[in-house]
From TrEMBL:
It comes from the Bacteria. Gene3D superfamilies: q2cbj1_9rhob like domain. Coiled coil: none annotated. It comes from Winogradskyella eximia. Pfam families: 2OG-FeII_Oxy_3. Residues 88-208 form the Fe2OG dioxygenase domain. Keywords: Dioxygenase, Iron, Metal-binding, Oxidoreductase, Vitamin C. This is SM-20-related protein. The keyword Ribosomal protein does not apply. Its cofactor is L-ascorbate. The keyword tRNA-binding does not apply. InterPro entries: HIF_prolyl_hydroxylases, Oxoglu/Fe-dep_dioxygenase_dom, Pro_4_hyd_alph, Pro_4_hyd_alph_FE2OG_OXY.
């Protein structure tokens, strides 16, 4: 693999470099322009279409080996995205995710070789209590990734903000459309505050084997 990377000319990506600097200095990065407005609209349309097809399921607590559904902890409904069976909007999404993954592996030697992503809908009055994105029996998740797909008229009073619990000061992030948040899965506890208007996103993880 190293010889393959050496054969590919390296071109520095200023956006990815900013993400790397943010994560190395504060364990998270917030990017407002990771996806274009048209890409966000296409992904939102894809999510809503599959929701209309009744493809979503209630979320669970834990990994596949130990999954429990607990409404008192989280209230979102999700649909896992299979990269082998995707539409054109999802293909654009994974093209960028894979490009970021390859860049991180080449510049930071993270050893990321797996990923998992799902659509997420938080209906009104739902939330996700404070937690870490890792499990006692599985610590492969290294970076958590959230892309918000809400409508263009989303307002702070709609709720559903993400809170990152940092040393000394918490960080509140409003889920405006197109905003992407990337953070260390094993380091930052976080929660989704109660939602007043249906909240849409893609959530996922970059993982080691």
């Amino acid at each position: 693999m190293s010889s393959l990377f050496e054969a590919i000319p390296f071109v520095e990506n200023s956006l990815y470099e900013r993400v790397i600097l943010d994560i190395s200095s504060q364990k998270y990065s917030i990017v407002d322009d990771f996806f274009s407005e048209d890409e966000v609209i296409a992904l939102r349309h894809s999510l809503l279409l599959k929701y209309e097809e009744d493809a979503f399921k209630k979320s669970a607590i834990g990994n596949k080996a130990n999954a429990l559904v607990k409404k008192a902890v989280r209230g979102d409904i999700i649909l896992w995205i299979d990269e082998n069976v995707i539409n054109s909007a999802e293909q654009l999404f994974f093209n960028k995710i894979n490009d970021l993954k390859d860049y991180l592996n080449r510049t930071c030697f993270l050893g990321i070789n797996q990923k998992e992503f799902h659509y997420a809908i938080y209906p009104k009055d739902t939330y996700y209590k404070r937690h870490l994105d890792t499990f006692q029996n599985d610590d492969r998740r290294k970076l958590s990734f959230v892309c918000y797909l809400n409508s263009e008229d989303w307002k702070p009073e709609n709720g559903g903000e993400l809170v990152l619990y940092l040393d000394g000061e918490d960080k509140t992030i409003y889920p405006f459309p197109g905003k992407v948040v990337i953070f260390e899965s094993q380091e930052l506890e976080h929660e989704v505050k109660p939602v007043n208007t249906q909240r849409l996103s893609i959530t996922g993880w970059l993982k080691t084997r």
